[in-house]
Amino acid sequence: MPTATDALTLAADFAPASxxxxxxxxxxxxxxxxxxxLVSKTYDGLKIAPIYExxxxxxxxxxxxxxxxxxxxxxIDHPDAKKANVQALHDLENGATGLTxxxxxxxxxxxxxxxxxxxxxxxxxxxIFIDAGISIELNVGPQSRMAAIHLAEYITAKDIDPAxxxxxxxxxxxxxxxxxxxxxxxxxEIAPAMTGAVKKLTDAGFKGPFVVxxxxxxxxxxxxxxxxxxxxxxxxxxxxxxxxxxxxAVDDARRMIYARLSADADQFLTLAKFRALRLLWARVExxxxxxxxxxxxAAETAWRMLTQRDPYVNMLRATVATxxxxxxxxxxxxxxxxxxxxxxxxAFARRAARNTQLVLLEEANLAKVSDPAAGAGGIExxxxxxxxxxxxxxQDIEKNGGLFQAIGNNLIQPKVAATRAARQxxxxxxxxxxxxxxxxxxxxxxxxTVLKAKPVEAAPYxxxxxxxNPLEPIRLAVPFEVLRDKSDHILARKGARPKVFLANLGTPxxxxxxxxFAKSLFETGGIEAIDSDGFTDPAVLxxxxxxxxxxxxxxxxxxxxxxxxxxxxxxxLQAAGPKHIYLAGKPGEQEAALRxxxxxxxxxxxxxxxxxxxAAYRLxx
Length: 621
What we know:
This protein is an alpha/beta fold. The protein has 2 domains: 358 residues, TIM Barrel; 141 residues, Rossmann fold. 45% of the residues lie in helices and 11% in strands. The strands form 4 sheets. It has an 8-stranded parallel β-sheet with strand order 6-5-4-3-11-10-9-8. A 5-stranded parallel β-sheet has the order 14-13-15-16-17, sandwiched between helices. The protein has a two-stranded antiparallel ribbon with strand order 1-2. Strand 15, helix 19 and strand 16 form a beta-alpha-beta unit. It is globular and about 85 Å long.
């Protein structure tokens, strides 16, 4: 039996492998195709190679304290303060270590939220020992900015020592302006009000941090990782300058600022993004003549990746996002419940959000290793590329006069819009997949339950004398969900969904792959696919189509079968009277003959599925 001191030599029986050995094998598989086919690109144009060597000499990036878990934050956003209090107490009793108090009309409120009154805060926090080690974070906007003062007054009235409270006050006027696309005041008017509130809270004994640079503004609007990092960095520098102008020492001012980033299901980009922000902020600190100290970074799982359809897949996306943010060094993570896109989440959805973090911390032990990605060639390279690109965009913002000026001049918004358009085009072509919405739909899924609550009306604060393009939040699945909603309305009105008949030709070995593809494609738009056995007789095929009650027909088989039978099958279908005839696959040299026979559209991987589905609904009238 080996002892504890014996060295494990698991690879001893294998010959050492080099990059050149790997490359020879890859070139053999590529068969003359360019190696660049294996190099992917992010929406920022950053290249990601298929393999990296170890990054020798790389040091861990300082983040959370060694082996310290991140804070498990739970959203408190029920408009009824008493019900919100019940939720908060239950969450803290069952594993949450912090509460995010979400106020109506604030960034990230998602249609709900608390009223920003002293009475609401007192009710929500009733029975909660704020100085017992839990974290409180405020999600506020200009309309709810007084919530910070009301919370401070509540703590004073309860005779609680502010220094023993772990509160992030979440003031972020720049983020609010960017989302609304307007401002009631100029920055030179906003900054003194913000710093005055910070000073008041500091004088009362609170340790902060008080202001947040919120990357959700960019991420929610469909922006890229580089754009999010540059925006956050520019926001922090704007707040740092404002505090310094208010006679706060820069060493004290940096402790008053923290950051919030979105975490999504792109594991490696999310992980690298969190690491990159720490390096970028350290560079700012060094430029200020300060020795870098770890920045507090809060994470929230991404809003834009949530789907209304098959919402349980949102749990998987949130798990990957939490995993990535946790390994990337996030100090606090808030998981959006999987049904939030449908309405106010119920107890089960809240429990799943909470337990996602508990399992990763307590069973997977993700927090036991500090910066586990350190030294991994791919992550180190991606981290550095994000830093370089984000710093360049940050410099552009600074050259434009700072963040408020850059937003006012619409410097940032067109870049985010271009990235959003590219991302939406990729989703439309199903190259970027949203499982359950743009791929693998379930037309018969039951609707997930949410709580009954009246949405909170939101409007900009004050008279908007300065206007610019807003960075409005989106969800990427919405175009497909709109089609699914149309299908539901047709079902309710007529008793049946729109249908497409899968005209399978030949044997199952020939048609199964493309029939499965076509079924998934049409049903992402709510058009129910009627499957069939393989046909060889065009007349029998035409009769089967008539009996199906479908509006559309889609030929499905292999290229070999198409060459022999597709034209005759299409002519028979055309005589049977469908509104449109599709063929699954690229037609190649047969296109002219197939169109002459009656095929009107070709559906294939990489085609614009969304445009095709919208056209199908127009054909239905």
